[in-house]
Amino acid sequence: MILQILLLAAAVGALVYFVRSGQSVGVRASKRIAFGAFIVLNIYAVLRPDDLTYLARAVGIGRGTDLLVYLLVVAFVFGMLNTYLRDREISQHLTNLARQIAVRDAELTRRENDLEQRLTALEQQATTNGHRPAATEPAATAAADEVGTARSTGS
Fold first, then answer.
1. In the predicted model, is pLDDT for residue 103 greater than 90?
2. Does 14 score more than 70 pLDDT?
3. 150, 136 Cβ separation under 8 angstroms
4. Residues whose CB falls within 8 Å of the CB of residue 134, separated by 6 or more in sequence, listed in order
5. Is this structure's pTM higher than 0.70?
6. 145/20 Cα distance (integer angstroms)
7. For a FRET experiment, which of 60, 74, 94, 100 has its CA 20 to 30 Å from that of 85?
8. Is the pLDDT of residue 151 over 70?
9. 61-80 per-position pLDDT tens digit
10. Nearest of 23, 4, 10, 145 to residue 83 by alpha carbon
11. Closest by alpha carbon to 41, among 55, 28, 24?
């Protein structure tokens, strides 16, 4: 009787943890239903072990314990497959994010180089004209602002 109470408490605890955990939001409804049904069947098997033996014999298995072990093996394989597929999906997302970051960084570097070249060209043009560009000249100010912005976001 004490073991049955412990098993029931463990099953209810697992169900409560699954339902209340922050990760349960992303779990699909079919997985929630399957897990809930699994917990209910476990509770039933603990409360009525003779019914499990009857069911096992009806499907051609000698004992209810053997049926339970077979079902647990299937549940374990399902869980491992689910974990593998989720890890593969996460890996694909990380690869896509790394690609996007690399492209963005290359674009920012290209823009920064273009702006530096424009600024250098403006400074050379001003030097050949015989005067140094003042900070109030719109083209020089805009180019300097763009280089500063590119450097602050790119670095």
1. yes
2. yes
3. no
4. 140
5. no
6. 51
7. 100
8. no
9. 888 888 888 888 887 888 78
10. 23
11. 55
Neighbour-count burial of 106, counting CB atoms closer than 10 A to its CB (0-12 exposed, 13-18 middle, 19+ buried): exposed
pLDDT in tens, 84-98: 888 999 999 999 999
Q: How far apart are CA 99 and CA 106, in angstroms?
A: 11
**Are residues 47 and 11 in contact, defined by beta-carbon separation less than 8 angstroms?**
no
Alpha-carbon distance of 126 to 130, in angstroms, equals 7
Band (113; pLDDT cuts 50, 70, 90): very high
Give percent helix, percent strand, percent coil of the chain, each to the nearest 5. 85, 0, 15
Contact in structure between 145 and 114 (CB atoms under 8 Å): no
In total, the chain counts a number of residues equal to 155
> For residue 44, how many C-alpha atoms fall within 13 Å in the half-sphere facing its CB?
12
